[in-house]
Write a structure and sequence with these properties.
The chain is an alpha+beta fold. It is 17% helix and 13% strand.
Length: 69
């Protein structure tokens, strides 16, 4: 039960969905509505991978815990 408003000259419309708090926009003609995804990697591999040369304070920074923890 979606109520549609007037069509926009660009072809994109606002669609009001019954029972929802927010309206939706239809995709722009010629665009890909699928979300963009990055390369498939495991989260564990990303966290353990070195990101550059190791500095003199890296070990200390990894051991420090913020005061609100």
């Amino acid at each position: 039960m979606a109520e549609q408003s007037e069509p926009d000259p660009d072809g994109q419309r606002v669609v009001r969905v019954a029972g929802a708090r927010r309206a939706r926009l239809t995709p722009v003609p010629g665009s890909d509505p699928a979300p963009e995804s990055g390369p498939e990697t495991d989260d564990d591999d990303v966290a353990a991978a070195p990101r550059g040369p190791k500095g003199p304070n890296d070990d200390r920074l990894m051991q420090d815990v913020p005061p609100h923890y």
